[in-house]
Design goal:
Blueprint lengths: L2 H8 L2 H19 L45 H17 L15 E2 L1 H16 L5 H17 L12 E2 L18 E2 L1 H17 L4 H10 L6 E2 L2 E8 L2 E6 L5 H10 L6 H4 L5 E6 L2 E6 L2 E2 L3 E2 L5 H10 L3 H21 L7 E3 L6 E4 L2 E2 L2 E2 L2 E2 L11 E3 H11 L2 H10 L10 E5 L5 E5 L1 H16 L8
Antiparallel strand pairs: 1-2, 3-5, 4-5, 5-6, 7-8, 9-10, 11-12, 12-15, 13-14, 16-17, 17-18
Length: 452
């Protein structure tokens, strides 16, 4: 057992608070040490926001005034109606033998990302009064027991996917695979962050969180302050740096809660260029996605950061610019815009609707890097999240457009296809979890905040 594992095992709730404080101090320290030597090697000189050689890309955000947060301190009747619709999804899709939740409606497969989303949904439902603390803890406790006992990839870390009903290692088609697919460091970091929310809200579950974390070789996915994913190539395990600007920093915050060194993952200056999208500076990773296409920028990691952890000064500016670009597109074109990654109900079934991606603004990309612009969706989760975080006239227009889509017997669908205004009928864990987290944020603030 590693030294860090022993530390985790010995951790009490007080130590958890100390670790959180350490993480906050570390974030503040990083922000105060922006390296002016970082360069904009890949920024086009003609772009309005291109920086001169030797200037930090962070300078582009100096003029971004963070939008005020819209925490209302109350839950309206409409909020409660919307929350009940989202919670119906989890009532319909939780396996009460394993405690795991389907990734999409009636599809019994799940990743660690979706498992983290489920924990967020349960805590949010409790905060909103949809379930009591006893039910919340019972649900989370059952899932934690399963996570502590599931078979791991190479006896190291959770596989990339599991069968919700049996807990078996599966591929992305939910077919059993003996060894597994490898591990996703981002997905695991997501559920680690959710563990932090669980411990903050239900301290009595800390021993069960300890049992899960003691059984996972978390040191295997952290190296030199960055996240390392495990992938199978020609039958052999390949270890790859994982994460791009946005997702990488969100995941780093999650791991910081438990004392992991995430300095290089949290830092953005060396890996970031800035693109001007409708007058807004958009943070874009200079590294390729899957080594094939320029990385894409979506709303998802920024709204998760705000709703769960509370923005730091840097992510608040990034999120403000990303939101404002979407509002500006609507003001310029009249087309409602609330983009992020999303499931879709036709092939290829999953796309990244970007603010910038694949070398252009507003590109819609498949996982493999192909364009799929006809599948751009006004996403339900992004509409609810931006409205909870910033509460502007525009976000209220988004909610007005999305509001009629909720199905009280099924949950919230992914959203509305931009090109023909038809409904993207896919119904998923992540969307319904974000709806609940957004509505809980409006009344109570970030999930990591103690108390309800």
């Amino acid at each position: 057992m590693s030294f860090r594992s022993n530390l985790i095992k010995a951790r009490s709730h007080i130590i958890f608070l100390v670790a959180l404080g350490f993480g906050i101090v570390l974030i503040t320290t990083i922000e105060s040490r922006i390296d002016d030597r970082a360069t904009m090697e890949k920024a086009e000189p003609s772009a309005p926001l291109a920086q001169a050689t030797g200037t930090s890309p962070m300078a582009a955000f100096d003029t971004v005034e963070p939008l005020p947060l819209a925490i209302s301190g109350e839950t309206t009747a409409q909020d409660l109606k919307h929350a009940k619709i989202a919670w119906r999804y989890f009532q319909n899709n939780t396996d009460m033998q394993t405690g795991l939740v389907n990734s999409a409606d009636q599809y019994p497969s799940a990743t660690m990302w979706e498992t983290g989303s489920y924990f967020v949904a349960v805590i949010s439902a409790n905060r909103l009064g949809l379930i009591d603390a006893e039910e919340a803890q019972t649900r989370i406790s059952l899932a934690l027991d399963t996570l502590a006992s599931i078979r791991l990839f190479d006896d190291l870390l959770p596989n990339k996917a599991y069968n919700v009903r049996t807990g078996e290692l599966v591929d992305y088609g939910n077919n059993p695979v003996e060894r597994g697919l490898g591990w996703s460091a981002l997905d695991i970091a997501r559920v680690i962050g959710a563990f932090g929310h669980v411990e903050r809200n239900y301290p009595s579950l800390s021993p069960k969180v300890d049992a899960v974390m003691d059984s996972w070789a978390l040191d295997e996915m952290v190296e030199n302050g960055v996240l390392i994913g495990g992938n199978i190539a020609n039958g052999k395990l390949r270890r790859d740096q994982e994460g791009r600007v946005g997702y990488e920093q969100y995941a780093a915050k999650a791991m910081m809660l438990y004392g992991f060194d995430m300095f290089n993952a949290y830092r953005v200056e060396d890996m970031m260029m800035v693109k001007d999208v409708l007058g807004q500076p958009i943070p874009v990773d200079k590294r390729l996605h899957r080594n094939t296409t320029p990385a894409f920028v979506v709303s998802e990691p920024y709204v998760f950061d705000g709703l769960e952890f509370g923005f730091d000064s840097r992510s608040h500016r990034f999120a403000t610019a990303i939101y404002k670009a979407q509002e500006a597109r609507y003001r310029e074109t009249g087309v409602l815009t609330a983009v992020s990654e999303s499931h879709i109900d036709v092939a290829p079934y999953f796309v990244y609707s970007s603010i910038w991606g694949g070398g252009a603004p507003w590109a819609v990309m498949t996982f493999k890097g192909d364009r799929a612009d006809s599948k751009r969706t006004v996403t339900t989760k992004t509409a609810f999240a931006w409205n909870a975080l910033f509460g502007t006239d525009y976000t209220r227009e988004l909610i007005q457009a999305i509001g009629p889509l909720g199905n009280p017997e099924k949950g919230w669908p992914e959203g509305i296809y931009e090109h023909d205004q038809s409904v993207n009928k896919s119904v998923t864990t992540n969307t319904n979890a974000v709806v609940l987290a957004a509505l809980a944020f409006r009344a109570h603030g970030p999930l990591i905040r103690a108390g309800k």
